[in-house]
Design brief:
- The chain is of the alpha+beta class and about 230 residues long.
- About 50% of the residues lie in helices and about 10% in strands.
- It folds into 2 domains: about 80 residues, Glutaredoxin (3-Layer(aba) Sandwich); about 120 residues, Up-down Bundle (Glutathione S-transferase Yfyf (Class Pi), Chain A, domain 2), CATH 1.20.1050.10.
- The protein has a 4-stranded mixed beta sheet with strand order 2-1-3-4, with helices on one face.
- Helix 1 packs parallel to helix 2 and helix 3 packs across helix 6.
Length: about 230
Amino acid sequence: MYKLYIANKNYSSWSLRGWVVAKLSGAPFEEIRVQLTGTGFNAANLAFSPSGLVPTLHDGDTVIWDSLAIAEYLAERHTGMWPDDRTTRAWARSISAEMHSGFSALRNDMTMCVKERVDVRPWSAALVANIARVTGLWNESRRRHGSGGDFLCGRFSIADAFYAPVAFRFRTYGVAPEGAAGDYLRNLLAHPWLREWEADALAETTIVEADEPRVIYRDKIAAAGR
């Protein structure tokens, strides 16, 4: 059985990606929670992760760290995780890699916190551009590859796992795309795996102030009188 090391479900967007792709594989796995410290790198995590970060997947003596590496490793071992069509699969891989390596303003200005609802407007120009890019990708994915299902490339795939944290971020910060992107956002948040993750996040009692939006963006919220 796989072992998947993840951090607090309320805050850890990278853990969410790894957890969803593990669910998508259909294989049983043991979920091992690691407490976030709120101070970045934790040397204690080197006991199970070469990078000291989560998510990390153990398959016997094989250790896979980084969410994209975990996704590709599982996709080699379990069918149906990427779209079947070669062109659609190339699209799905591209948009997953883009999310994995980019969107720094979205990550920095809209940290994930499943429980929270907060308004941090006015958004920076970089954040506006990131939101527009995500919305455009969602609309184009649904238009070009969305037949046969409610998700980016039709049926649920690794691509949707990589945009799952964005769905929670958009809801937390009141980002409401219109059209196909808005429909996709609602469908993604309603997926049973995201609902399961959300329920677990809401049940957590640990508060990590360094990851709390009302702490991180306190000055901005106060300046706006919210």
